[in-house]
Amino acid sequence: MSTTPTLPASPTEKFLLYKREIEARLHSRKPREQRYARYEQALIEKSYFVRLNGAVHHYHDSHPEAPPEMPTIILIHGWDCWWMWWHEVIQHLNAAGVRTVAYDLKGHGWSDEGTDYSLDALSADLHALVQHLGLKRYHIAAFSLGSFVALNYAQRFESEIGSLTFFNFGIFPNSERLEEGDSHCHSVYFQQVPAQNQSLVADLRICASDTGA
User: Fold this and answer.
1) H/E stretch holding 122
2) CA separation for the pair 199, 51 (Å, rounded)
3) pLDDT per residue as tens digits for the range 2-44
4) Are 12 and 108 in contact (CB under 8 A)?
5) Beta carbons within 10 angstroms of residue 37's beta carbon
6) What is the reported pTM?
7) 3-state secondary structure of 58
């Protein structure tokens, strides 16, 4: 899987527009709107932008200066969604001492448009992000399209991944593309979660239940 060098980038226009909307809502006469605007404002303080394979991507990193021993989980959203879907999950995991990295797939959220939206291309973007962050060992949680990106990615980088957790996702037996995978790939996808990762997965399930996922 080839990737082009990653480069820090300026915020996208979509992000700047949303930021201005947040600032406007801070002056709302409705207390509820003000509270949520302050909440979002605090969230985006940890937003970063990087050029991955030609497209500027947004990602939210809860602990960019995290020590190596701090567990890290990459959160991948689904089709026609964005990183903010994970906001309550992020809160819960951060409180449990877990670093979270939630990014917007290209063409989604605050990331710029791309030209190639194949699973291979989306996986290459994920690989470029992992390299940019210098991650060596991490977990991945995803839903919908994000799960397929993660599965595609896991075929190449199985040794780096501590666990895979999926929501709103299924593999259908009549999918010729998926049936092309050998038994080894399937064992990687659906193997039992190691004992040391059970608590992390339990935390994710609690969050999913709390947010109605």
Assistant:
1) helix 119-133
2) 34
3) 556 678 899 999 999 999 999 999 999 999 999 999 999 999 9
4) no
5) 19
6) 0.81
7) strand
